[in-house]
Write a structure and sequence with these properties.
About 45% of the residues lie in helices and about 15% in strands. The chain has helices at about 30-45, 65-70, 80-95, 110-115, 140-150, 155-160, 170-175, 185-200, 205-215, 220-225, 235-240, and strands at about 5-10, 15-20, 50-55, 100-105, 105-110, 120-125, 130, 165, 180. The longest helix is centred in the first third of the chain and has 16 residues, at about 30-45.
């Protein structure tokens, strides 16, 4: 059986590939654990300066694998999934190397949170992000945490309260995506961007990202703890004055 997440190293940069194409890279326990492990590996490798996060098989991520979550007998990872998923998002947050998301086809609900976690998101023009938990009567805590870290309340409200699909072009217009490109050019563009940033002086991009993190968030644990409760995440006053 193939690993749920694959690591591919290139010169100066690497790819973290969600590798469950038969279910459109839907999220289960092994995928969450694989994401954390691959991101930690990239973060510890002095030869890696940039990470591309993408899905195998031409789609980013379809959200939770509901079939796996409701399987009988219960998967061994299910009782600890909350900790697994927190670990994946913690690894995304703590990765000092810039993360470029390559959004093909769609990123839905839990998959949307992974796309929104990217420092730079390259989106296909007709690909979309959908934070649709509101239609299920649910909160969208990790989506909200990433949106409020990076974007205004207005942008966060548009994506989370409407529950609708936002195309790559719309995401670029909102500033959520770095750019929107032809659907068949997403991986090529994300890879080229990674190679370009990797050619800069070693550690420069990581230093900038570290400074942004220090400026915006006092504590990763506080940030995610409060994002996953009824109250919203706290930010430093300096992070919201603009």
């Amino acid at each position: 059986m193939a690993d749920a997440v694959e690591w591919i190293a290139h010169e100066g940069w690497g790819e973290v590939v969600m590798n469950r194409p038969d279910v459109k890279n839907a999220i289960n326990g092994p995928l969450g654990e694989g994401l954390a492990a691959a991101l930690d590996r990239a973060n510890q490798d002095p030869e890696i300066n940039v990470v591309v996060l993408r899905g195998a098989g031409g789609a980013f991520c379809s959200g939770l694998d509901l079939k796996a979550f409701n399987a009988e007998p219960e998967p061994e990872w299910l009782p600890r999934f909350n900790q697994i998923w927190r670990g994946a998002h913690r690894a995304l947050f703590e990765c000092q190397k810039p993360i470029i998301g390559a959004l093909e086809r769609y990123a839905i609900n839990g998959g949307a949170a992974l796309a929104l976690a990217a420092d730079l998101l390259v989106a296909g023009e007709s690909a979309y992000v959908q934070v649709g938990e509101v239609k299920l009567g649910m909160a969208a805590p990790y989506n909200m945490a990433w949106l409020r870290l990076r974007h205004s309340e207005n942008v966060a409200a548009k994506l989370t309260i409407s529950g609708r699909r936002f195309s790559g072009r719309e995401l670029a217009d909102l500033g959520v995506a770095y750019e929107a490109v032809a659907d068949d050019q997403v991986i090529a563009r994300a890879s080229a961007l990674a190679a370009e940033i990797a050619s800069y002086p070693p550690g420069a991009a990581a230093k900038i990202k570290t400074m942004m993190r220090i400026y915006n968030v006092e504590s990763i644990d506080d940030w995610f703890d409060q994002a996953t409760t009824r109250s919203g995440p706290r930010v430093k006053p300096s992070a919201v004055k603009d």
